[in-house]
Model the fold of this input.
Amino acid sequence: MGDRVGVVWDPALLGYDLGGDHPFNPVRLELTMRLARGLGVLDGVEFVVPDTAGDADLGRVHRPDYVAAVREAPMASWDVGHGLGTADNPVFDQMHAASALVVGGSLAAARCIADGGVDRAVNLAGGLHHAMPDRAAGFCVYNDCAVAISWLLDNGFDRIAYLDVDVHHGDGVQTVFYDDPRVLTVSLHQHPATLWPGTGSVTELGGPGAQGTSVNIPLAPGTRDAEWLRAFHATVPSLLAAFRPQVLVTQCGVDTHVEDPLADLALSVDGHREIYRTLRDLAGQYAGGKWLVMGGGGYELLRVVPRSWTHLLATVLDRDIPVETALPVDWATSVRKLSPNVVLPSVMGDGVDVAFQRWGGGREQPVDTVIRDVRNAVFPLHGLDPDDPRD
Ligand SMILES: [Zn+2]
Done:
């Protein structure tokens, strides 16, 4: 399978570095790649090296005055606006080039699928889903997800499903395609009343010509793997079956983990692994096997992100790693060099059982409230029956 998957990587992607103590630290990518190599996940894989995205591609999503502001921000002694120079989105050297390279990575992945004869492609550096057409937001300068989807729409795809499992609402991508019936955006995230950016409620359904193509599944703080998976399976597969996408695009942020410092869901690495395997199944079942994978958030840099995203790479490559697999000694040593006091897990899982009860029949659970709200709001717009568990 290794030669049928496009894995985008270039150490230059580590240049997307917001600096100082900013939580979006590129060490998370570096340690992921090192762990994946240590476990043999990347053996024989030839990386797809991305080009920097040009203005024409950035212009698919972003306004020219915003791109100009990103370019000039590091040199400017004045406030360039557009959300730049804030605590969340500090200005850094080479900001435009580094951000455009991330976009180039997701474009390269999209190209692999559109004309490279490849079914799956992954850009872990991508997934910057909060960037808006005219401004930076939530650590995201350019929205590589939206640019890649827009490119696919111009290159042979006219039904695209975007699935966002980051703990934060995929607001930028939803905004860009809110009125476009060709793109189904689905976001599962922590409830907007309890987490930035405060959007992503069930009632955001898409514009007048695209009703039902924005889907939001807000989850209560403390939601665990079994509840998350119950909500997912009660809503997402039916929608994909009805929408019949030609490609599944997924943003795979891992800030849903219980140890993530920026949010309050309670998933495990085992749960993440189960999610990736489910996404792979769904791409096979409903999108002709075509699966474009991006990274995203995730701020427990040492204990969580490298393990979770190693599972993601392994899943994309059909080289699944058992959760009992020991962490390589060399890898642990390199992490302790960075952070001498870190207490590392010893294996690739958290020891959590990810079994869950399917919705429909059986005992009512607290998460069923949102399941019903989503099904009632969205299912009729796709010809599905909200009350029928077979739908
Ligand atoms: Zn996030």
Observations:
- The radius of gyration is 20 Å.
- Residues 166-168, 253, 255, 296-297 surround zinc ion (CB under 6 Å).
